[in-house]
Amino acid sequence: MTDQNTQTRPRRAAWPGGWSLLALALTALVTVPVLSVLWLALHPTENIWPHLLSTVLPRYLWNTAVLGAGVGVFATCVGVGAAWLLTMYRFPGSWWLDRAMLFPLAIPAYIGAYALVDFLDYAGPLQVALRAVMGWNSARDYAFPEVRSMGFAILVLGSAYYPYVYLLARSAFREQSGSSYEVARALGASPFGLFWRVGLPLARPAIAAGLALVLMETLADFGAVQHFAVQTLTTGVFSTWLNSDNAGGAAQLAFVILGLILTLVLVERASRRRARFHKPARATRPVAPQALRGAPALLATGLCLVPLGLGFGLPVGVMAGHALRHPSVWLAPGLGQALWHTLAVGGVAAVLTVGGALLLVHALRQGGEGLARVVLPLTSLGYAAPGAVLAVGILIPLAALDHRLADAVLAVTGHDPGLLLTGTAAALVLAYVIRFFGIAQGSVETAFGRIPPSLPMAARALGETPSGVLRRIHLPLMRGSVWTAVLIVFVDSVKELPATLLLRPFNFNTLATRAYDLASLEKVGESAPAALIVGAVGLIAVWALLHEEH
Q1: What is the pLDDT of residues 127-166, one digit of tens each?
Q2: Structural domain boundaries, residue 397
Q3: How far is Cα 444 from Cα 18, in angstroms, rounded to an integer?
Q4: What is the number of domains present in the chain?
Q5: What is the biggest distance separating any 2 CA atoms in the chain, rounded to whole angstroms?
Q6: What pLDDT is stored for residue 10 in this prediction?
Q7: pTM for the full model?
Q8: 306-324 as b/e, with b when 16 or more CB fall inside 10 Å?
């Protein structure tokens, strides 16, 4: 009778364990700023939707669409073309070009914009040389394209972001079977036919993923488009918030940006929904590169050098030239302080981000697949949201919390502590953690997947706790991947400009904001040291990426 009552008694709902609660808390930390933007956009203190629709929003949308389309086409053509040439052929310089094509990732797009404008402007070396050679006296004597324009913005952003497409397309081409190409050649396919009918269709998912990253970065960019005087949605967030002092309007523009990014992600996934690409079960013969000679070899080398020169060579050359001609800029006041701020804030953010990602992924492995399916997409929202959007979502609710904390401390102690969160670099660290949490999470999740499940299972069978398994089994085996993730997040934090501009405390500069402030005042030479240091830090991350590949 007791057994029957036990069987029919309804089961109580199990409370989530400590690891599940930790995962939910970290998820809330990452998603609250995005939800805050949505709330502020839908419930502003002053509804300016009608004003935006009748004035600036159509222009912002049109410029953003044209910029995204131009950068997407440019980056895709360059990235896919370079990946195909360096995978399928061997020509002079192909070995080092295969690695050097990633170097533009080290140079933020805004530094490329400063360098190109400085090089091509009326007082720049190119026009000065043209006037000297041709005997021209003023700008009225010759026609030169407007440098601060949409076309040059597309050129700079495309040159900065094509490595995203190149990296994924190259991996896709290398994973394809060399036998497929041999059969196609035997059937009479031309070199272009091999690319168009065999290589490109099989690599389309990887290319689409790279293009999505390019478009997200283009939507997020502020420094480059602002320097080229191109008014996009991101520049509109700055203008509406800082110039018009309208936080609700800035949130509404940020809401539009989030909607575009969400649409972009959904379209990219829908385009690949019915496509299926499988590798053969048996080991396949890799693609055997063919040697090019003569004019085709020189043409292939030149085609790879052009985007590399635009995305890396020109910015480094212009900034290094300024720094060498005026070495005193390295001793300018404020540079050392900006370097210290960058190292401190970026380092703290990198450690906290990767540490949080470690705890989250480990907690999800304890909580089961159901929790992971809900949490993982949400924790990636921060990376999809541009820095300007996150700044809106962080600063406004954080400022309200800051004032309440200060009032509470004042009521208890009689001392006004000031703004503890928004008045310090804490808000900046929080923005970096949320912005780059998805990157750290992906790296950590991949590292966890490489560990055989039998090791943690054996440790648990021997009585080890989940935290002990993480400390004694996972972390020693993942040490290299963890440090790589810390490095990548640190470099991205060093390069981040929009969130830093909006969230930095008064009189607080990082290397990125110092370069921006000086370049916006047409003091490109004085911004050169900060720009070069940012590029050098970026090269460290590129080196780590190449080391992981090879």
Answers
A1: 989 888 888 888 888 888 899 999 999 999 999 999 999 9
A2: 17-39+335-508
A3: 20
A4: 1
A5: 109
A6: 46
A7: 0.83
A8: ebbebbbbbbbebbebbbe
Closest CA to 510 of 347, 366, 343: 343
φ, ψ of residue 478 in degrees (nearest 5): -105, 10
d(Cα 224, Cα 217) in Å, to the nearest integer?
11
pLDDT 10s digits, 45-57: 666 777 777 788 8
The CATH number of whichever domain residue 398 belongs to comes to 1.10.3720.10
Per-residue three-class SS string for 208-264: HHHHHHHHHHHHHCCHHHHHCCCCCHHHHHHHHHHHCCCHHHHHHHHHHHHHHHHHH
Nearest CA-CA partner of 307 in 88, 81, 70: 81
Strand pairing report for 290-291 and 89-90: parallel
Low pLDDT (below 70) residues in the chain: 1-17, 44-47, 177-179, 181-184, 186-187, 265, 268-286, 367-373, 376, 548-550
* Domain assignment of residue 525, yes or no: no
Q: Which tokens is 133 given?
A: 């050679």
First to last CA, the chain: 68
- Whether residue 5 is contained in a domain is answered as no
